[in-house]
From TrEMBL, chain A:
InterPro entries: DCN-prot (IPR014764), DCN1-like_PONY (IPR042460), PONY_dom (IPR005176). This is Defective in cullin neddylation protein. GO terms for molecular function: cullin family protein binding; ubiquitin conjugating enzyme binding; ubiquitin-like protein binding. Signal peptide: none annotated. GO terms for biological process: protein neddylation. Neddylation of cullins play an essential role in the regulation of SCF-type complexes activity. Residues 9-229 form the DCUN1 domain. It comes from the Eukaryota.
UniProtKB/TrEMBL annotation, chain B:
Keywords: Isopeptide bond, Ubl conjugation. One of its GO terms (biological process) is ubiquitin-dependent protein catabolic process. One of its GO terms (molecular function) is ubiquitin protein ligase binding. Residues 450-705 form the Cullin family profile domain. Pfam families: Cullin (PF00888), Cullin_AB (PF26557), Cullin_Nedd8 (PF10557). InterPro entries: Cullin (IPR045093), Cullin-like_AB (IPR059120), Cullin_homology (IPR016158), Cullin_homology_sf (IPR036317), Cullin_N (IPR001373), Cullin_neddylation_domain (IPR019559), Cullin_repeat-like_dom_sf (IPR016159), WH-like_DNA-bd_sf (IPR036388). It comes from the Eukaryota. This is Cullin-domain-containing protein. Residues 377-396 are annotated as: Disordered. It comes from Neurospora hispaniola. Gene3D superfamilies: Cullin Repeats, Cullin, Chain C, Domain 2, Winged helix-like DNA-binding domain superfamily/Winged helix DNA-binding domain. Belongs to the cullin family.
Amino acid sequence: MNDRERKRGPDDALNQLFDRLVGDEDRAAAGAGKPVEAIGAEAAQAYISSMGANIENVEAFVVLEIVRADSIGSITRQGFVEGWSSIYLDHRIPADPAHHRNYVRMCIQNLPQNPAYFKKVYQFAFGLGKEPAQKALEKDVALVFWDLFLGTESSDTGLGPRPWKSKNVDWLGAWKRFLAEKWTRSVNKDMWNQTLAFAEKTMVDETLGFWNEDQAWPGVIDDFVLWCRDQGIAKAPAPGTAGGDGMDVEDY
Amino acid sequence: MASRTNKIRPIRKPITNRDQSEFEPCWALLRDAMTDIHLQNAGRLSFEQLYRASYKIVLRKKGALLYERVRDFEQEWFRDHIMPNIAALITKNLINISLLQHPGSSSHERREMGEKFLRGIRDSWTDHNRSMNMIADVLMYLDRVYTLETKQPSLFAVTIGLFRNNVLRSHIGAAAEDIEQDFVVFDILCAVILDLINMERDGDIINRNLVRKITAMLESLYETDDEIENHRLYLTLFEPRYLEASTEFYRKECEKLVQEANCSTWLRHAQRRLNEERERCGTTLSIMTTDKIASVVEKELIEAKLDVFLAMEGSGLKPMIDNDRLDDLSILYQLISRVDSTKSALKVILQRRVRELGLEIEKALKNTDFSVAGAAAGDGEDAGEAAEKAKPQTLNPAQQQTAAAIKWVDDVLQLKDKFDRILSDCFCDDLLLQSAITRSFSDFINSFNRSSEYVSLFIDDNLKRGIKTKTEAEVDAVLDKAIVLLRYLTDRDMFERYYQKHLAKRLLHGKSEIHTEKEMVSRMKSEMGNHFTSKFEGMFKDMELSKDLTDNYRDHIASLGDADYKMVDLNINVLTTNNWPPEVMGGSTSKGEGAKPDCFYPPEIKRLQESFYKYYLKDRSGRVLTWVSSAGNADVKCVFPKVPGKETGPLSKERRYELNVSTYGMIVLMLFNDLVDGESLSFDEIQAKTNIPAPELMRTLASLSSVPKCRVLLKEPATKNVKNTDKFSYNAQFVSKAIRIKAPVISSISKVEGDEERKETERKNDQTRAHVIDAAVVRIMKQRKLLAHTKLVNEVISQLMGRFKPDVPLIKKRIEDLLAREYLERVEGDSSTYRYLA
């Protein structure tokens, strides 16, 4: 490895790897004689599978996150090169498919165990799922994604890497029922991100004692908490433990 | 000893003997003198001689001996001459009565006996004290040199202390033997004094001087001969017992008062007791006790049952407030200020009462509404509970509702006056109570959801009536009151909305005096700031510019020369869209969607409009004028030809009247110009020809065909309400005594909104609030860059406080919206903190 390569990273090698992924359709889409800058759904799926990831579940998101994809059906040359290149710089993973495969396997194993990494992939998925022109995720897409990431026994896709449930409560099931009943709009980025933050909290404290309406939770989560109490899913804290109310505060 | 024989010793002077020989005569001299002093026989003594005697003794270093001898002498004297007297005073009876509190003695008896005992003690003390003073004078040199050097208590302290040791602390008395209880003379003394004081508290007259002498004695005696300031017997022995006994006394008294007296009596009683106790300390006891006994009274008599007394039915705080018992309230305030600097007991009830009275106003209003509306709705309309809610169909209920609004404001102002008076006359303008009362007023005023509208209506009513019936000073007072109310309103944006609407109507119909209007607005400005009144000021400005414009246009037409006699005189108001309420500008009712087609003007008017528009655009190209036909009015000169066949009476002559009608009224009337006698127009025809919106047209036709003083149209059938099928014809027989007739313009009366209208107003207001909150959040975040959720919410509330009280859920929603629109983002790792995205 010479100095130049150490500085620039293995960009040339990665470009060559990318070229190998290009299928006929992609070449046709780019136009004759022009360099192919992106590969389409078929080639992308093939690549994900070749990396040992299951395209049916979150494992696909792991690969797409690495290559910085901006939608499910496409991988760009830029994202591919920059993504692997930075992994090379951070972790010294050589630019060859075998090493990449190993790295992907490691990431997939890491996903349920490392909350920070899980959050990174989860938040990245928001960008993958939404239509490029829109700012929010369609509700149906969001529901599928939640199943993939946070799936519990009640989910169609089975257990996700981080099932959203606690000892007595299937939170994801409750969340989906709540959304079906009360929520008709799409899911914006804040709601998407805050749902995970909220999920983490519920898995620690299933009484929802951490929640307080004066906090910064999005309104939909406030409504969910009240709905849960209403449904008897989480009991309201005993009077007196909340504190602070009923006092006549002097404000003059 | 043998080993010391070789030491050299100093020569021992034979001085001892001489000293000894000199001491005894001197001491004899002094002893005799002391005896004389005790026997009050000191007149023959020579101070100089005695002084020298003690001087000599001290000089010969015999101070210690003298000190001892004097002490022993006094002790003996005390034992032999004073104690028997004291012992004689202490009878079994005295002990029984004073100490053991045996029943069966009248207070007179007790007093006699007690005072006799005190007199005995006093006399002994006076003698002793005098003697000891004189002896101390004689032996002054001893004290100054010997006592001081050896750091012993002065001779006076020692000898005066004999009284303490031998009298007060002694278990003497022949009668004492029978009593098992351990006691000393002081116990008797104290019990006697306390008994006397309680007698005085119960209304007896006692010998105050005598008691004062005794307490003075206790003040001048100390626990030890060292005479430490805080160890006066008065403070260490007497005062604690006195306070304890007083506590007991007042506790019982208070319990009795709770049972037997009312709050007013209690107040006066407590006040009297406080004065008595203060006076007692001055005359009978010691001023050292003044504050302490006051706090006993405060605690036992005032504080202990405060809540019970305040809650007493018929005499407690509530009836005091209700019946303006100002004296009681003043005393109460003074007493409560003594025991509780926060005056919370008073404050709580006061606040509750303000709120209750405020709600009563609201309730009374509903009841009044009920009866008035019931009386008015005589035409079979269901006058049940719905009367208050029922949409006013005729003019009367609307006016009455407006009257209800005025009544509400008047009542609130009256209540405010009442509490202002209480505050200044009884509560010394206490700031704490003032703010408490203010808060309660604000509470109930704002809990009443129509307060903003009512306050604006109140001002409306007064400014309109101000022209005719009120002097300037009276109007001034009303404006002040309005400002007072305005201060209480938290939803000032709602008020602004209503005021704009009402002001617009007053201005356009010339209902009020412009300088009073301006005065009012300038007061609002100084109270709430520029932003609050900018629209109102804009409206004034529009009115002024319009006046000039009208004049200039008239001059312009005149200068054209070819004055068309048929030309209509135009008086125009050009209104800037933003300054005026949409209700006026759109001319539409609340539900009108989009621009509605304008009505069809008669050709004369069309010509006028075009002419003015041309003139207007000369200096202001690019502006657009929209004619608001619903807001204007017109003077129409009408000629009624003489009615054929009538030779006498007013109908026999041609009649000319000047009729003032709304713009719509004018358009309708113009239609009848072209009509042949006897022909009529149906409602639908009129609407088709004029394109006036149906509700407006109904009102217009009603005012021209049902109000007798301006019934220039005849309606078929001649019922009160206008229906689509009605036909209208020209009333050839119209007669009026007045030449100038004003047709009532129904829409110009400011009235309480109906429920629908109100919801609409609130919806609009909420929309505006959302924008205002967005702006506030962005403004704050732009400045702070990074801010926690709670802080942001609080900041928004405090920034908008002056305009309205923002709803926390609404703020939260707006923040969420701004997050979605990427004006803000959550800080990574702390999702309750936001960052501003430039």
